Amino acid sequence: MSTQTNLLATTRRSSTIDDVPTIPTRVLKGIILLLCCTVVIVPFIGVISTSIASQAHVTESGGFVLWPDSLNWASYRAIFNGGVVQRALLVSFVITLGGTLVSLAGSTMLAYALSRPGSFGQRPILMIVLFSILFSPGLIPNYLVVKEFGLLDSLLALVLPTAINGFNVIVLRSFFMSIPASVIDSARVDGAGDFRIFWSIVLPLSRAVLAVIGLFYAVGYWNAFFNAMLYISDTAKWPLQLVLRTYVINNTELSSGDLGGASADQLPPQESIQMAILVISLVPILIVYPFLQRHFTKGMLTGAVKG
Amino acid sequence: MISRRRLLGGSLAAAAGIGGLSGCATVTRSTDIAALNKPVGLPTYRRFDGPKPDLPRSHPLMPDCFYRFPAQPVRVTEGRPGDGSDVSGTVPTSNPIPPTADRNPYWQELNRRVGSPLELTITSAAGSDYTNKFATSVAGDTLGDLFNVDGKFSYLPQFLEARAQDLTEYLSGDAILEYPFLANLSTDSWRGCVFSGGIRAVPIQRGVMSSNLLLARQDLLDQVGVELGSPTVDELNKVAKAVTDGKKNRWAFAVPPAAALSAMLGLPNGWEVRDGRLVHSRELPEHKEMLAISTKMQADGLIHPDGVAKNNQKVWFTQGSAVMTQDTYSSIQSFYRRATVKTFAIGLPVVRDSAGKVGRFLLGSPNNSIAAMRPSSPERTKMLLRVLNWMAAPFGTEEYLFRKFGLPERHYNLKGTDPVLTEAGSSEVCLGEFPIQYLSDGGYPVYFPGHPEAVDVAYSHLRTILPTAILQPTYGLYSPTDSTKGKVADKDFDSLTKEIQLGRSDLSDWDKAVANWRKSGGDAIRHEYEEALAIKGNK
């Protein structure tokens, strides 16, 4: 009897995940979350503020403005004046859109084939995919392959070498394997071929994982700069991230010619231009994220727990 | 298509790095110090009789000083150096990469004047971009006919033996006189091009212009009403405290003033022969004293809060967040170009030691880098040397004017006799530094267009410090251990210096680090350099 009482008491004392936290706990959590958010958001505000601050304010603040005293859009006007940044933005959009489509097409087809028992060469191909996750060929062999395929100075060099990502293929394969075989079998009974099943049955059922993997690929293409540095000599084909790296991280000075011919006397401060480039590089991804967020949890978890 | 053997070869090259060349039977063994440092007859120096400098040369190392660009630049070459065939190359740039030849009228005119289309692969010099590109280009054999080699990578002599033309027969002694603008480059700069008993590159000469020194914002000092003069350590500290004002976002130094402190304390320039033996600066008590002083400066808040950890000194100095910084003579022009106030003025204080004498000035390397040539036939080698000679035409000539400023009206307009780049010029001529300057270039003059007062400041400083100035005694010598372990050691000491200055490590840790360095390669480097110095003779 006394043992039962003790057990009951222990159960009452221990909190569960469904318990409503006490007010001090909620306040403490709130403060910690607020601090974390501040640490993340303040640099963003600084970047945006510096991009729209006046020359005098940038100078006074030592190069980094936390809150602008006035709005000055000169940096954005200079960037969108037809210079190197505007061109690079266009290149980045082309690579990101084109690359994501190529990657999604290739990865889904490969993953679907690998998820169907009895596909030709299934195990060796799966091993090759796994091998590519574990071992990277390295800088120089990659360069040699790109060079020998005649892809140097071509935008294809920024897409094809990274078109298929082993990890993403495995996630997609896991998702496809979770689709009941009976659904596919019934489609086959109705006379659908492999491509029909893939296009009309499998892909519509896989929107969540396609959104997640598509975002992975898109973010990867959008942020990539290293391959462009190695393979692209023509600055007209540089993506935005390489421009960003050159002018922001390496602190190279933008000339008026790079900014579409803005008068040298009217050039905004270099720091403002650098921060404006940074803002421009962030915006597309920030816009895309909320639209895909609802697919995120479902897509990731389904792919992650199936073997 | 790529062959399996080629891909495997590339992978092995990646795994072994360029160091793999040391195992090759056709190049000098890395243990053969004598062969690696074998002397060779250096090119004869013959000063080109070009435009007369505006200020007298008071010292052999004094660069030519010009207030203004000569009014009527003379054409000093005849015909075109090229033979019509394509000339390819790999070069870095510190400026925005210029538009490609098909979209760049300057480049098109350059090709016409050279007489051979230049196909250049241009990569940013910042960070490790050029190093990565260079490594892939070596493996892919896409370096081209001419390529810039940025100094200090492992097994450099062996690499040049394997991949670069030996230019000795074309340039040694009086043979160079066939290329008068290359002969106009200083003998010191050619010493940096000798490897394994051969002249294997041409120098990208900077002379004293690449030496680090203390730069001060004279306009800000005047504004605050502080006289910097010619300070000792104590006086520099006093001035630093007077100009620092955190509330106004103003600090005395953008970065720790190592060059000034080294001169004030009489430190060696890297290695120094003392009592018949080489001693490195970092082994001396003066070096620890320098560390202690800069640590105190940091603790007293005299250095920009990010000055030790992050290097953005050009921006801070230009904006006035820092009153003093450390940079080179050649940086002066870029500071004036970045200036955001019309009163912007740079002062160059001559620092003094505790006895009041001019501090011993430590000269930078005579060369920015070197440029090598792919092995080719004697005819093609001579043609490429003619092209490099054309690119080295000195300041004040018509060739120089075109090379640095492009075409009148499109790329520059004259302000008096000084060319001022237009918007198209800034972009197409790469801010006056089109990257062919990393294949060959003339001597670097003291010339700051539109700022003759800055020329006076630099000249006055140079005239005072050059008699005390010293070059690294190991310059032009090769130590295999230094080439493989030196960079890592330099990085480690640099990190430790920062840790000490930020108060995260104790000054006593320096001694332990020096002891470790000596055991792990420092003594071997010393021994190799001593051996090289012994056979240096007339290298």
From TrEMBL, chain A:
One of its GO terms (biological process) is transmembrane transport. It is a multi-pass membrane protein. It comes from Kribbella capetownensis. Belongs to the binding-protein-dependent transport system permease family. This is Carbohydrate ABC transporter permease. Its main location: membrane. It is found in: Cell membrane. Residues 89-288 form the ABC transmembrane type-1 domain.
